[in-house]
Amino acid sequence: MGITKSELFKKRQNRVAHLAKAFDHPARVAIIEYLLSNQTCICNDLVDILPLSQSTINQHLKELKSIGIIKGEIEGPKVNYCIDEKVWEEARDIFINLFSQFVSKKNCC
Predict the structure, then answer these.
(1) What is the CATH T-level fold of the domain 12-98, as seen in this structure?
(2) Domain boundaries, the chain
(3) pTM value?
């Protein structure tokens, strides 16, 4: 089997790219913002506030969960979602460090 393009990059670069996927759609950003202000939710909570169908919201929740930025626990017939604090802190630190590198190097035009 051939080498994948991601294997050509450093582990940290792959992790940054993976975590950045959580923010590559406004619906995911809205879901994250909701969870940060409400701590937890079920899909129907999001259906009430987002202009998207339940199936679309479920797809975004699934993507956020696969990235690891949120986690979900089954409570009866529903899944209760919340921010994974460990991954959230990791993402925050990664992006703060990444952006601060570029701010401190004022070598552009």
Answers:
(1) Arc Repressor Mutant, subunit A (1.10.10)
(2) 12-98
(3) 0.84
